[in-house]
């Protein structure tokens, strides 16, 4: 089965449409005001409206208030929610929507135990831990910290770019890859050539 690709942090309609034309499986919209890739509801609506059928739209939140998430859900047709903060399982289940739980990996974490507590998530997104930022850092983490067996599909994130796709796929064998900085020319501005190179590297990977 081909490894799925999610590209996160779109702020511009044209970039998202270009990604969809390249065959990306999912696009991520960041509803976290501290992120340089944060989108307003109006921006998000414009991006979603422009996308062709069968492109999954993931809305990303970091320890957001329930009322704010419900307000966004009422106005933007999101297919899936991504919780990228310290949300407990009950907070992820409030909306009756498919969700991904992001874990920011650092030594000493019990990844398997955490994964089990989010058993109803549709995927576990494993990202790099960083003291000063919640995500989109462009930094890899030590993939040896990923347990061999996890109960959920693994979406590998953190410092991926076209040049390390093959190494990541060989080392981790994830269900999907997630990338943001590695396909950008500036924060929130995706580079069509880098997106194409990333997706080509995934498509060219043979076990
Ligand atoms: O992208 C952001 O700015 C961001 C901010 C706060 C929390 C999460 C954020 N992004 C989450 C993602 O899914 C990124 O794609 C993931 O962190 C990987 O980013 P990168 O290392 O830049 O490829």
TrEMBL record:
Its EC number is 5.3.1.24. CDD domains: PRAI (cd00405). Residues 5-200 form the N-(5'phosphoribosyl) anthranilate isomerase (PRAI) domain. The keyword Transferase does not apply. InterPro entries: Aldolase_TIM, PRAI_dom, RibuloseP-bd_barrel, TrpF_fam. GO terms for biological process: L-tryptophan biosynthetic process. Pathway: Amino-acid biosynthesis; L-tryptophan biosynthesis; L-tryptophan from chorismate: step 3/5. Keywords: Amino-acid biosynthesis, Aromatic amino acid biosynthesis, Isomerase, Tryptophan biosynthesis. GO terms for molecular function: phosphoribosylanthranilate isomerase activity. It holds the Pfam family PRAI. It catalyses: N-(5-phospho-beta-D-ribosyl)anthranilate = 1-(2-carboxyphenylamino)-1-deoxy-D-ribulose 5-phosphate. NCBIfam families: PRK01222.1-4, PRK01222.1-6. This is N-(5'-phosphoribosyl)anthranilate isomerase. It comes from Methylocucumis oryzae. The lineage of its organism: Bacteria, Pseudomonadati, Pseudomonadota, Gammaproteobacteria, Methylococcales.
């Amino acid at each position: 089965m081909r490894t799925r690709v999610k590209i996160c942090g779109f702020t511009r309609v044209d970039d998202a449409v270009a990604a969809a034309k390249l065959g990306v499986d999912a696009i991520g919209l960041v509803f976290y005001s501290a992120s340089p890739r944060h989108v307003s509801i109006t921006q998000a609506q414009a991006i979603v409206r422009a996308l062709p059928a069968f492109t999954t739209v993931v809305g990303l939140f970091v320890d957001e208030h329930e009322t704010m998430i419900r307000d966004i859900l009422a106005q933007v047709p999101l297919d899936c929610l991504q919780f990228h903060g310290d949300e407990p399982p009950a907070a992820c289940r409030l909306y009756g929507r498919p969700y991904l739980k992001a874990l920011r990996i650092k030594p000493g974490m019990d990844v398997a135990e955490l994964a089990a507590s989010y058993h109803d998530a549709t995927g576990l997104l494993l990202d790099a831990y960083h003291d000063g930022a919640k995500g989109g850092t462009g930094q890899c983490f030590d993939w040896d910290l990923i347990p061999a067996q996890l109960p959920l599909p693994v979406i590998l994130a953190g410092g991926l770019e076209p040049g390390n796709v093959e190494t990541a796929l060989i080392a981790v064998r994830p269900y999907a890859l997630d990338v943001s900085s590695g396909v950008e020319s500036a924060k929130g501005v995706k580079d069509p050539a880098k997106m194409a190179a990333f997706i080509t590297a995934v498509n060219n990977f043979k076990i």
